[in-house]
Design goal:
Layout (H helix, E strand, L loop, with lengths): L1 H15 L39 E9 L15 E13 L2 E14 L7 E7 L10 E6 L13 E10 L1 H9 L5 E6 L7 E7 L1
Antiparallel strand pairs: 1-2, 1-8, 2-3, 3-6, 4-5, 4-7, 7-8
C-alpha cells in the first residue's frame, strides 16, 4: 500500500508541474545592437577663387554707311570700315577706379574727295537710334584723315574715360556705337555698334 501511495503521489506531482513531457523554454540569445554603417567624409572641394577682373577689354565695330541714321545715300555711300575700341582699366577689387580708351580704325571705299573730320563713341543708343557723344576720338576737324586709293587709317589712345561710363560700356557694349563724321556727312558717314571682342 505504501508503494501505491508513492506512485499516486508521483503522478499528482507530475500533473501539477505540467507533466514530464514539458520542455524548458529556451532563453533567447542576446542580439547585438545594430552598428551604424561607417561614415565616409564628403570629398573636400577646394573653394574656387573669384576670377580676377580683366584690366584690358577690346571691342570691335563694323563701320557701315547704312548704319547711319538716316543711311548715307550720296557719293560716300560705298565707304566702310573696321574699328577696335579698347579700354585699359585700373581696379580696386572689382570696382573700376580709372579708365583709358584707345581706338584703331581702318577705312575702305572712300571717294578721293572724302574728308573724315571727327570721330566719337556715342551712347547709349541701340542700332538705328542716335545718341549723344560719350568719348571724343578725333576732335581736330580742320585736319581730315588722308585718303589714299580709297583707304585711310586712324589711331588714338590715352583718352580718359569716366569709370562709371567704362562700366556701362562693359555691361552693355551694344548700347554704344563708334561714329566717324566727314565734311560731306557731318552727322556721320560710317557707324557701328560695339561688340565685345
Amino acid at each position: 500500500m505504501r508503494a501505491l501511495a508513492a506512485i499516486l503521489g508521483a503522478v499528482v506531482l507530475l500533473a501539477a508541474c505540467g507533466g514530464a513531457s514539458t520542455q524548458p523554454s529556451p532563453t533567447p540569445a542576446p542580439t547585438a545592437a545594430p552598428t551604424a554603417a561607417p561614415t565616409t567624409a564628403a570629398p573636400t572641394v577646394a573653394a574656387t577663387p573669384a576670377p580676377t577682373p580683366a584690366t584690358k577689354l577690346a571691342f570691335t565695330a563694323d563701320l557701315k554707311t547704312e548704319n547711319e541714321v538716316p543711311p548715307i545715300a550720296n557719293e560716300e555711300k560705298g565707304a566702310s570700315g573696321k574699328a577696335t575700341f579698347t579700354l585699359d582699366l585700373t581696379r580696386s577689387g572689382a570696382t573700376i577706379t580709372a579708365a583709358k580708351a584707345s581706338i584703331d580704325a581702318s577705312f575702305a571705299g572712300l571717294p578721293a574727295t572724302t574728308a573724315i573730320t571727327i570721330a566719337h563713341l556715342h551712347g547709349p543708343g541701340a542700332a538705328g537710334v542716335n545718341a549723344g557723344v560719350k568719348i571724343p576720338f578725333k576732335t581736330d576737324a580742320d585736319k581730315p584723315l588722308t585718303v589714299t586709293a580709297g583707304a585711310a587709317t586712324f589711331k588714338a589712345g590715352e583718352i580718359t574715360v569716366d569709370p562709371a561710363l567704362a562700366q556701362q560700356i562693359i555691361d552693355k557694349p551694344g548700347d554704344f556705337y563708334v561714329n566717324f563724321h566727314s565734311k560731306l556727312n557731318a552727322g556721320g558717314v560710317v557707324r557701328g555698334q560695339l561688340v565685345k571682342g
